[in-house]
Amino acid sequence: MSEPSFPVPTLFQVPNSGSQEEEKKAAGYVNYEVEPGFTIRLRQNIDPGIDPKKLKRIVSNRVAAQKSRLKKLQYVDDLVKKSKELQRQVSVLRSQVEIASEQKRCLESEQREIKECMSAWLERFISKQGEIEVYKAEIERLKKKMDRLI
């Protein structure tokens, strides 16, 4: 029989932190370093006569699951970073909106004042136009009277 193409198990020493629960979890497992920095745990009570293909499938499934978990953690971290960045952008935009709203109120106030001034000027203009028409009519009447006298 040829040698299996999966990694050779190494014993995993868990530092004794005093937690019995951690010791129970670590007891009975063998670690396989599949890739540098990539280790999976298998039970020590695996039958040594297990089919190499089946063991390889178990190892590759564990590797895929661990990669999937790591990928999910990275995805969640990215989402948290994006969320913080978006919250920062929201606060910046909120302050910009407040400034723009204040400018809008000032411009609307100025616009009302200008409309009132224009309305007053228009009323005066119309009034003056009426006076001019009255004066023109008076001038025409006086010219006709002058022409009759001469």
Automatic annotation (TrEMBL):
Keywords: Coiled coil, Nucleus, Transcription, Transcription regulation. GO terms for cellular component: nucleus. Residues 1-25 are annotated as: Disordered. It comes from the Eukaryota. Residues 51-114 form the BZIP domain. GO terms for molecular function: DNA binding; DNA-binding transcription factor activity. It holds the Pfam family bZIP_1. The keyword Transcription applies. Gene3D superfamilies: 1.20.5.170. It is found in: Nucleus. One of its GO terms (biological process) is positive regulation of DNA-templated transcription. Residues 76-145 form a coiled coil. This is BZIP domain-containing protein. It comes from Thlaspi arvense.
